[in-house]
Amino acid sequence: MARDPSSPRWREMRAQVLVDGKNFQAALGDFEAALQLTPEGELAAQARLLAGRALALEGLADWDAALRDYEQALQLAQQAGESPDPYVINSRGNCYNSLGRWQEARADYLTSSQLFQQAKGFRGRGGSTTQRLD
Known about the structure:
This is TPR_REGION domain-containing protein. The chain is mostly helical.
């Protein structure tokens, strides 16, 4: 992908690299820019960006803000017709846990576990599926 800071996808990918490098504050800037550059109707993309931003907020121990982003990401994904993402639900559980909201954390961990167990595999670009190993 060519360097194009005006591309929301480019900003998202750089933000993910910054999160991996634990540069959470810089990642937030790129997630914010990507959200602003993403057209309003692209709900799945907005959900993905909010989940990424939430992860950066977790890195900064801003549990309340991360929780709000995870909840909004799940809502937008549902509106877009996407299946619930067990990774996002598990991460939301981590926020609940960090806030001492044990029952909500437990519920999310159980839901995430069930969703992972129900997953049949991934459909590749060529149409074939691969078995889930997690």
